Amino acid sequence: MQVFVAIPAIIALLYRAYSRNSLTPLGLAIAGLTAILHATHSSALPFTLLGVFFLGGSTTTKIKHDVKSTLTLSSTAGSPSSSSSSEAAPRTHVQVLANSGIASFLILLSHFSYGTSLACYSRSVPDPFLTGIVANYAAVAADTYSSELGILSRTKPRLITSLRIVPPGTNGGVTFAGIVAGLGGAATIALASVLLLPYCQGQWDFIAKLQLASAVCLWGALGSILDSFLGALFQASVVDKRTGKIIEGEGGEKVLISSTAKQENLMKEFVHREKLKDNGLRQRKEKRSEAQGDKNEGPSRVVMAGNDLLDNNQINAMMAAIMSFGAAGVAWSMR
Q1: Stretch 156-175: mean pLDDT, rounded?
Q2: H-only helix segments in 22-173
């Protein structure tokens, strides 16, 4: 990518993220390094795909945020997600890496294999690294659009592994509207790819480009569906028993079943009990407790579906890796 184009483009992208509070400070730093790495590729396509994904993803996140924030709860406060602010929470550096880390790795592999020389994109022998980069952004864009817009569906989501109806925001919950939105997200990547791929002359007619765009859309949609399967299997969906709403982890992290406040209370009780041992009052304390009975309530958070093995960021990174390396492998097998 030309330096005189890359520098102002990177500055504009970071300024937009900063001015709209789309990324945390560390997220901005990692995004800046990611953008610089993408700009070092001989083709402008990787950086363009990064920009298209970021702009589209940040836009869909803010669409009807006031409505989406009432559909789930925040893990930090137990209140509607991000309800304290009219804006969506900024993305963290971990989320940036989960979505673009595989593409960045493929760019490094491309530099190591080919250097910075510009090679045309052959129809019969496509570049596996560039193919994997396109696949990465098609998949993560489809997943982002599906998650951010599918939750607004008027129909209840169904768990992809059992098809039972689940609350909005459930990991692995899918709707028809969400699948269509995912196709739309992949289509933005397909359009940018068709316009900017460095084609080998004489190999790509209109029909071939249309087939390529269709393949990118389909691959992205498959990535979104794969993400739902992985989420349903390896990510716990925690529901608040009082409201029946899904609790979302801050920044895509896991939701604690036992709250921090409860853990702190247990520690305070332990310390207090040890003090009572020293002054001989422990037995009287226990008798009073037995007389009053156990008034402790059960946990308000329960796992409704899935296994608490991975968080949302890890699921996204796994899906991106499978779809990216899978597409790169297909391209490599054509050599």
Answers
A1: 95
A2: 25-39, 45-62, 65-68, 93-114, 128-150
